[in-house]
Every structure is written in structure tokens, then in C-alpha cells.
Amino acid sequence: MLRSIQDIDLSPKPNKTYWANCDREWREEFIYFLLIDRFHDDQLRKPELQAGKRSGFGNADQLQTFCGGTIRGITKHLDYIHDLGCTALWLSPLFENNEAAYHGYAIQNYLEVDKRFGTKEDLAELVDKAHAMNMRVFLDIVLHHSGDNWSYKDDIEPGYYNGNVYPFGGWRFEDRPLPVELRDTEVYWKKGRIRNFDTYPETREGDFFGLKSFKNDESPEAMYVQDILTKIHCYWIRETDIDGFRLDAVKHMGEKNIGQFCSLLREYAYRLGKKNFFLFGELVGSEELYNKYIGPKTSIEVEDKAIYYGLNSVLDFPLYYVLANVIKGHATPEKLIERYESLRRNAMARGEFGEFLVTFLDNHDQVGQGIKRRFGKDATDGQIIAGVGFLLCALGTPCIYYGTEQGFDGAGEGDWNIREAMFDLSGNTTNALNKESGIYQEIAKIAAIRKKSSVLKFGRMYIRKLSKDGKDFHLPVFTDSLIAFSRMLYDAECVVAYNHSLEHEVEQYVTVDKYFNKDGSSFHYLYGGEGEVHMLKSKDNDRYFIKLKLQPAQFVVLTNR
Questions:
Q1: Which H or E run contains 222?
Q2: N or C, which end of the chain has less CB nearby within 10 Å?
Q3: Measured CA angle at 296 (ends 295, 302), to 5 deg
């Protein structure tokens, strides 16, 4: 077993041809995010067939501990993810964790896969089989903190207070954490638990609940631990041929540290022949905060004049916070307009593709949100399809959380309520991997359309003005409006529209581009309808538009090409 950072070999593996990450840009991906412990175990099971939405498996007691999901369980069911239309897989952290940590974020050994999930060889096999399906694999990693691997004096758990350093108590294990270089008390802040997650420097220096934070400033100790963490994650690229990392708790790290880490990881991937290595982060905060972590950054070292490039993208929390209520009709579409205007203002500070964030409806980590709930809670099948459809057709790199495609509807005060199992925890014969589900099939249809459409993947996005009479046009700021936007690429236009009412049919005129479309042009349906919709124009020829009549919760995609 590897014990020291000195034990790892970072030279390319002999006779290994590393996957060059196919010919897709990262913004083309449709990502499937799963918790390893919750997706599937090693048992041979059959799906429970159900036409519409369903709940996941597990009760409160079962979901607060290990459920038995494994890496091999994922490998055996890659076809389920692939056939949904997903092109990339994001795995929850899988390094050896503290005994009670099923979620993977409490790491005690960075050099081994947690044996409850499987082995390094299992991971390499999963990656190889995903690559054979032309799918990328991303790992969730944690740089801010380790697991609960040591205690404070007298085994207290102090809270952060004015930057005070608390006495070290002792290591909880004789031979952890690993590598052994992390058994150095000077690489940890030792300042107690974060009390206020929005206060600096507390949010960077404090412990993440009981998980002990590494130093992450510009001190020699911080540079030392960053070098260790960089080599560790290069090692996992070398060993398993993975294609990217999702960085946890980014706002708890310095932006220069993140920039240097990301650049060095990309450089190592290039050394192995891997292109387009994708690095995205979890950053819960203002849109302006994103700008500090995406794109080019200056060096930490005064004498180093190099430019380092940070994250490619981050998870789009501003969209997450408004989209569910708009899709369900609880908020006016005006909230979406405000969100995309904020995106436009900030994107130019992020370098290439700064407007492409990783978009999502469901999230496994809803700290500070009171009652945790899946998007499927109190949603109809049509609303779930429209929600994922919106992500697939709008600006961004769409990500679906496991179980959303089956309509999982977990809710409650604890995070375990939204971390259901996809397999029966009280038996060993059934699972929820139902390809016959209506939600699954409709999402797969929209994903297939996006996969073929350069317009939906790369096009500019415009929220469209609407009218009830073909004369007075306005942005969709009323609850009885359609939601409509266009994606435009050179001379092609796709129109995406949705009626977010569950009660009323809505008929409105939708603006289209007057330069892309000529007199007599028409749009035809790619999804959600049949036939053609002829283009109309105002009497002064100043505005072109189409007329749409949508049933409650109807979602449609049209194109002029």
C-alpha cells in the first residue's frame, strides 16, 4: 500500500495510450451526477416498471449510513446513463473515507479508493468502459479540508473566533491520514468550525463542520500542502485516465491557489496526451465571486511571471435558485431574465466561454436551505421534463442529478432525504433504472436533439418578447406568459417555449429574428409538436414573429433550418 507522496510514480504508464478526450468541447457535455453509494450495488436486479414519476428507495435510518453502492454497480449499468443521452459521468468522492462518511467528503487516505466502493482497478475499468461509449468521467475532489482525522485538545470542537488557533489534541488513527505528509500539524489551520460561511477569512480558515481545513494562503505550509494535493490528483489521472475534476467548496479556497492547481493539473494531463481536461467547481455565492475563479490568474510567486488559468466553469447556483419556481409557476419568468442579464454582465470577465456554466435542477448538498427538496417534489411529469429540457436547450453545460430522470421526490430536513438509493435496500431483486419511464424517455429525446444541434450547444441565447395580439410585445414578466427564448448560430435559429401554467392553455406571438428569417419562412418542430409554424410580421415590417398555442406544461423546440 502506498503511504507517502514519495511512493507515487507520475511518469506515463508504460504501454498506456491515454484517452485524448474525444472531439467534444466541455460545453457540449450532458453530465450525469451520482453518489456512488446510492446508484447501484453488485446485485443482479431488474427495474421496477412504472410509467410516471416515483420515489427513490430507502428510509431515514437506511439513508443515513452506507447503502452498498459500488463502482462495479455503475460499470454494469453504464448503458442506462448512456441511453439517457448523457455524455459524461460525475462521480462523488471515492477516496478512503472516515468510517461513517458514506458521501465521500471526509477523506482519510487520498492514495486509495474506499474499499466499500471498490478498488483502483474497478475505477480504471469504469473509465475504460465509459471511454468505449465515448463518455467522459469526472471525479469530485476536496482540496479545502481532510476528514475528521484529528482532534483538538480535550476532544472539544471549538468554533471559529477572531482567527484564534486552538491546541492540537491528537491523531484519531495510528496510520491515517495518508499520505504520511498530511500527518503534519502545521499544514492545518486549527481554528475551529466555521460559524459564518460568508465571512472572510473565517470561511477559508475554519473547519468545515468536523472536517479539518488545510492551510490555503500563501504561506510555505500552504504551498507545501498544495504541492502534495496537486501530485495526488495527478497520480489519479495517471492511474485511471479520468477526464476532469469537480472541485468541492471552492469559495473556501484562495483564487490564486485554485488557479495554480488547475493549471498544473491541465499541464500534467497534456503531458499524458489528454486534451480538454475539464475543471469545474462548487461555488455558492454571488455571480461576481465566480469571476475570481474562472479564467486567467496571475502567479502566487512574485518572481514567477506566468499566467495560470483557473476553473473552466462553476455550478450555476443563481439559475438553480430561480429556475424551479419559474418552471413550477411559483415565480414569474422575470426572475430568469434577471439571472441571464447578470450572466451577460459578468461573463466577459471570465475568458473564453465565460457564459457557459454547469446548470442543474437538483443538488445533493443544500446546506442552509432549511427543508431540502428534490425538484420532483410537488412537480408533475411534464414539469420535470420541461425543467431538464430547459437545461438541455439553454446556455450552459447541463447536469442531471441521479434519480431526477425517474421523478424522485425526496424532501425533508436532513440531506439524506434527497440522497435516495436507486436500488431496493430491503431486498436484492429490484432497482429504479427504468428505461421505460416516460420522464426518462422524453429527456432522452430532447438530449438526442441537442446532441445533433450545434445551435442548441453553441448558439447565442435571447429571451424573447411576447404578445397576445401581435402588436404590443413585452418580456415575459407575468404569470400567464409563455417562457420563450432563442438560440442563434450564424443564420440558424431555434425557438424554445414552455407554458408554465398547469391549468390554462396559452396562445401568444413569439418574436423571432428578422435578419435570419425571410418572408414566407417557417419554423418546424423538433420536439413537443408536429408540422410547421409560419412566420408572421408586423405591418411596418419591423418585427417578425410566430404564433404558438401551448397546452398546460407543454414544452416545445422549433427550428428555422
A1: helix 220-240
A2: N
A3: 150
Cα(126)–Cα(560) distance, rounded to whole angstroms?
40
- Name the 3-class secondary structure at 248: coil
- Per-residue pLDDT tens digits for 498-547: 999 888 999 999 999 988 887 778 999 999 999 999 999 888 878 999 99
Which residues fall within 8 angstroms of residue 539, CB to CB, at 6 or more apart?
Answer: none
Using alpha carbons, list the distances in angstroms from residue 18 to 15, 103, 122, 274, 441. 10, 29, 17, 6, 33
Coil, helix or strand for 235? Answer: helix
User: For 352-488, where are the alpha helices, taking DSSP H only?
Assistant: 381-393, 438-452, 454-458
Burial 174-196 (b: 16+ CB within 10 A, else e): eebbbbbbbeeeebbbbbbbbee
For residue range 446-470, list pLDDT tens digits in order.
999 999 999 999 999 999 999 999 9
Q: How far apart are CA 84 and CA 447, in angstroms?
A: 8
Q: Which three cell numbers mark 469? A: 395580439
pLDDT at 370 over 60: yes
| DSSP class of 182 | G
Spatial distance between the Cα atoms of 66 and 102, rounded to a whole number of angstroms: 5
Beta strands in 392-439 (DSSP E): 397-401, 411-412, 430-431
Residues 141 and 135: their CA atoms lie apart, in Å, by 19
The secondary structure of 299-368 as a DSSP string is -SSTT---EEE-BSEEB-HHHHHHHHHHHTTSS-THHHHHHHHHHHHHHTTS-TTTT--EEES--S--TT
**Residue 474 neighbours by CB under 8 Å, 6+ apart:** 465, 466, 467
* pTM, to two decimals: 0.97
CA distances from 66 to 117, 214, 419, 480 (A): 10, 27, 11, 45
Average pLDDT of the residues in 487-491:
95
In the prediction, which pLDDT does 354 show?
Answer: 78
Beta strands in 8-121 (DSSP E): 31-34, 46-47, 88-91, 95-97, 107-113
pLDDT tens digit string along 231-274? 999 999 999 999 999 999 999 998 889 999 999 999 999 999 99
Phi, psi of 228 (to 5 degrees): -60, -50
Give the pairing type, strands 296-298 and 307-309: antiparallel
> Within 10 Å of residue 352's Cβ, how many Cβ atoms?
11
